[in-house]
Amino acid sequence: MEMKIKAKAMGDYMTNCFIVTINEKDLIIDAGLDAVDWVMKYSKNPVAILNTHGHFDHIWSNKELKEKLNIPIYIPKGDAFMLTNDPFHKNTPPSEADFKVEPDAEIEIEGIKVKFHHFPGHTPGSSAIEIGNTLFSGDFIFKDSIGRVDFPYSNPEDMKKSIHKFINNYNKKTMIYPGHGAGTDTNSAKRMLKPWLNFL
Asked: In the structure, how many helices (H) and strands (E) does the chain have?
């Protein structure tokens, strides 16, 4: 399975939006602030919008892209309420999930296998989306840090459990593309994560 990845940091928060192309079909991951024009230009055959979690800087362009492209939105079930709840009061354009993905569920979209690994803490539904040999970690794992746990609906204890879960149970060797900043890999991420267990 050949996979091509386009990425661009969007908006003031430099949130990574991804276009993942497999078999000439595009999955759009985390369509955040100001993502519409870029996605419309570089996505030739979009089939779905995937959200790693429900924060405004990752979902801002959901509504407009869904209307323009007529494609479904997938979001972790635990964060679906954020599409209309707007916990940061940013006047985020409200959108509606077509599919609320259960924790750790593997689904198939247009013949492409996609797994939502549930790693709550940053948000209740926070997930890392696995496609092929690649993990799109949202705001769970960054190259040198983890997602904040002092936001509305964040939970430090859940984050600690998620870190344990990733270190002990996620045994695949994959590239990791975070929601902000540069990429990393699973081995580097596990080394980075261990010290965080002492701070949570």
From this structure: 6, 12
**2 is written with which tokens?**
């050949």
Contact 138, 15 (CB under 8 A): no
Residue 89: which residues within 8 A CB-CB, separation 6 or more?
A: none
Q: For residue 67, what is the DSSP state?
A: H
Alpha-carbon distance of 9 to 142, in angstroms, equals 14
Residue 10 contacts residue 17 (beta carbons within 8 Å): yes
Percent of the chain with pLDDT over 70: 100
Sequence letter at residue 196: W
Secondary-structure class of domain 3-198 per CATH: alpha beta
Q: What is the mean pLDDT of residues 29-50?
A: 97
Give the Cα separation of 156 and 200 in Å (integer). 6
Which amino acid does the sequence have at 57?
D
Spell out where the chain has E strands: 3-10, 15-22, 25-29, 46-50, 73-76, 99-101, 106-109, 112-118, 127-131, 134-138, 175-178, 184-185
pTM: 0.97
